[in-house]
């Protein structure tokens, strides 16, 4: 390859890098959790603006010594502006918007230092070489793409929660293997590139990078399927609880109609017994109260889905011989999706029921919830079971996959969970920020 051809390739690869950095930035931004909805045209316009400014700094002021400062500053400012305006203004994401461009700059500096070191080792001093400059541009762009891929995996780590062990390790294997192959092609194929050019090498690198993106897509697709399966299972449980709840509401309605129909006879019987035998009259009235209580569904809270869950679990506890004490103050969970309420309270109460059912001695569950300032605070207590080592089995069950789902669901709303053992009890405390009807 002639000196002129190498110079042309150098310009072409420089232009290509402006596209790569711009697309990497937008790939990174698109993988942040979106809380702002904007039109696609606006996002595309911002993409073009970012590329135009980036290209201008690269080619119009590249001979100026201030470019090494201007470029990182521009990348940080534009990434922050685009992220906060188009995607998410959260504090942690603003920190990510600051950190990502610095990662790209660090990768560029690292590759530049490696190439400079290679040149110095080869000739004993720095001598500009278009061939090595082109190699540096190719390797730098590959490193930028791979660094962006790692950022995307970190941002979307919840997607890959169900991808474990060897499968998750395999997510990082293709980029590592690709990097090794590319370095081998570049440094072993020196003679080939001098004779035939770098076109074939560039095509090989492009195909390797494309393969990496395809593998990441497959992992994302698999993780998304697993997440949808988990959500479908939650919907199924939620539907079952709602069905049982409304069955009981219908039974209550039919029973109340019968009760109203017979109420005149009952009142007459009570009056007659009170006149003849007051004790029998009181006993009759107690029986009437018990019968009315058996028909009713308890209204623990105004939160419809939570009330359904509490009634369902209270019924299950009664069937298992577990005493369930529930007191819900004035909390507001209107901003929490029904499915997420099911995930949080369904998992926790299922764990508590299982642990209480396996405990020795008195079996009980206590549920307390109330509003405190701008938070809904929930506490669930139950006895620790005594299988083997004290409380070991109970704690294992409480800290299983279900609890991981509860934590991740709470994190979506800025909430948190703390599980602790205290004496013979196991306690789970929740905090959920949001609208609170009243506070202490």
Can you describe this structure?
With 440 residues, the protein is α+β, with helices and mostly antiparallel strands. The protein has helices at residues 3-30, 40-60, 67-86, 91-123, 130-155, 165-188, 190-196, 199-276, 278-295, 304-320, 338-358, 392-398, 401-412, and strands at residues 323-328, 364-372, 375-383, 416-422, 425-433. A five-stranded mixed beta sheet has the order 1-2-3-5-4, covered by helices on one side. The N and C termini lie far apart (79 Å). Helix 5 (130-155) packs antiparallel against helix 6. The radius of gyration is 33 Å and the shape is elongated. It has 13 helices and five strands.
Radius of gyration: 33 Å
* Helicity level: over 70%
Question: In terms of per-residue confidence, which ranges show pLDDT below 50 for 5 or more consecutive residues?
Answer: 388-401, 436-440
The biggest beta sheet, please? 5 strands, mixed
Output mean pLDDT: 76
Order of helices and strands: HHHHHHHHHHEHEEHHEE
What percent strand? 5-15%
Helical/strand content category: alpha+beta
SSE topology sketch:
Blueprint: H1 3-30, H2 40-60, H3 67-86, H4 91-123, H5 130-155, H6 165-188, H7 190-196, H8 199-276, H9 278-295, H10 304-320, E1 323-328, H11 338-358, E2 364-372, E3 375-383, H12 392-398, H13 401-412, E4 416-422, E5 425-433
Parallel strand pairs: 1-2
Antiparallel strand pairs: 2-3, 3-5, 4-5
């Amino acid at each position: 390859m002639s000196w002129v051809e190498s110079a042309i390739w150098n310009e072409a690869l420089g232009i290509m890098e402006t596209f790569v950095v711009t697309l990497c930035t937008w790939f990174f931004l698109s993988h942040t959790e979106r809380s702002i909805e904007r039109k696609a045209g606006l996002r595309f316009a911002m993409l073009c603006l970012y590329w135009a400014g980036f290209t201008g700094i690269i080619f119009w002021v590249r001979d100026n010594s201030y470019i090494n400062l201007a470029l990182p500053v521009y990348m940080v400012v534009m990434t922050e502006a685009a992220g906060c305006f188009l995607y998410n203004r959260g504090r942690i994401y603003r920190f990510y918007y600051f950190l990502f461009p610095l990662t790209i700059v660090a990768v560029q500096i690292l590759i530049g230092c490696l190439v400079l070191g290679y040149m110095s080792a080869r000739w004993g001093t720095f001598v500009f070489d278009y061939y090595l400059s082109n190699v540096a541009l190719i390797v730098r762009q590959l490193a930028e793409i791979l660094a962006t891929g790692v950022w995307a995996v970190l941002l979307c780590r919840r997607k890959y929660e169900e991808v474990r062990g060897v499968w998750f390790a395999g997510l990082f294997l293709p980029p590592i293997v690709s990097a090794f192959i590319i370095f081998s092609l570049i440094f072993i194929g020196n003679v080939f590139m001098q004779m035939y050019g770098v076109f074939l090498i560039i095509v090989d690198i492009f195909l390797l990078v494309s393969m990496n993106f395809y593998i990441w897509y497959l992992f994302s697709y698999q993780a998304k399927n697993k997440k949808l399966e988990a959500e479908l299972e939650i919907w199924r449980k939620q539907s079952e609880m709602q069905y049982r709840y409304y069955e009981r509401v219908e039974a209550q309605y039919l029973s109340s109609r019968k009760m109203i129909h017979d109420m005149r006879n009952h009142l007459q019987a009570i009056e007659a017994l009170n006149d003849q035998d007051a004790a029998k009259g009181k006993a009759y009235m107690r029986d009437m109260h018990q019968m009315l209580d058996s028909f009713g569904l308890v209204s623990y809270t105004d939160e419809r889905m939570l009330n359904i869950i509490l009634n369902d679990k209270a019924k299950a506890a009664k069937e298992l011989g577990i005493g369930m004490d529930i007191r819900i103050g004035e909390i507001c969970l209107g901003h929490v999706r029904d499915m997420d309420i099911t995930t949080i309270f369904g998992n926790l109460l299922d764990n508590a029921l299982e642990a209480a059912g396996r405990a020795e001695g008195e079996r009980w569950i206590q549920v307390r919830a109330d509003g405190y300032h701008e938070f809904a605070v929930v506490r669930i207590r139950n006895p620790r079971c005594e299988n083997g080592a004290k409380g070991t089995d109970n704690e294992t069950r409480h800290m299983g996959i279900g609890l991981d789902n509860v934590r991740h669901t709470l994190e979506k709303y800025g909430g948190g969970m703390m599980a602790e053992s205290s004496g013979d009890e196991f306690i789970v405390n929740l905090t959920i920020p949001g609208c609170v009807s009243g506070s202490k």
